[in-house]
Each structure stands twice: as structure tokens, then as C-alpha cells.
Design goal:
134 residues; mainly alpha
């Protein structure tokens, strides 16, 4: 062998050993993914419970309102008053009408028909605006 012949190349001596990404254990990543999935499932369950609770509260409020309207209408009939209470189905606004008992003609309505028409148009526009945005 000559004195110039070297058994190892300089690149072999100087290169640091880097971990092989394929050989790196995936356990910690898989554990983290599992933790995130469990946390996501817990949050989704909590949101679902809150949504169901809120929906139930809305139904309870709606039934309470309907019962109050029935009670008011009964009391107004007993007192021979010409008032009628109701809820507009489209705008969910409480309406009061004063009628002429002998003719059945509506003397006054609160809110007025013009206001209800505006509220109905706004409800219709809500759907159009949200459909275009999303």
C-alpha cells in the first residue's frame, strides 16, 4: 500500500449520524393524535349537549308564551273586552287586535299590517342573504 492510500474517506469520518426518520418511533405522534381525537370528541359531545339544552329551552319558552296568550284571550273574553292576543308565525311577534264585537271588524292591530309586512320581508331577505354568503 502506498502512503497516500487511506482506509476511510474524509466524508465518512466527518459526517455526523442523523436519526433516520423512518426509524424514529411514531408512538409519541400516535399518542398525541389520539389525545387530540379524544379532546375533539369531548368538545363535540359538549356542544351537542348545549345545543339540545338550548333547543329544549326554546321549546319551553314557546309553550309558555302560547299558554300565556291562551290565558290572556280567555280573560279578555270573560271581561267582554274586544282584545285578542296572538303570535305572527313568520316574524314571531306578539300581535294584539281590537275588534268590534258586533261586526267582527278589526278596529286596531298592533303592530300594524305595514310593520308586519316589513318584518316578513326582512325574514325572507335573511334567507337570501345567508344563502349567498355561505
Amino acid at each position: 500500500m502506498s502512503s497516500m492510500d487511506v482506509s476511510s474517506t474524509p466524508a465518512e469520518k466527518a459526517s455526523p449520524t442523523l436519526p433516520n426518520p423512518a426509524a424514529t418511533p411514531k408512538v409519541s405522534t400516535e399518542v398525541e393524535i389520539k389525545k387530540v381525537a379524544e379532546a375533539t370528541a369531548r368538545v363535540a359531545a359538549e356542544i351537542s349537549d348545549q345545543k339540545n339544552h338550548t333547543a329544549q329551552e326554546m321549546q319551553d319558552l314557546q309553550s309558555d308564551l302560547e299558554e300565556a296568550i291562551r290565558a290572556l284571550n280567555i280573560k279578555m273574553e270573560v271581561k267582554s273586552s274586544h282584545l285578542n292576543f296572538s303570535v305572527d308565525e313568520i316574524s314571531d311577534r306578539v300581535m294584539v287586535t281590537v275588534t268590534n264585537k258586533s261586526t267582527g271588524e278589526i278596529v286596531r292591530q298592533v303592530p300594524a299590517d305595514a310593520i308586519l309586512k316589513v318584518a316578513h320581508n326582512m325574514e325572507a331577505l335573511k334567507g337570501v342573504i345567508f344563502d349567498e354568503m355561505f
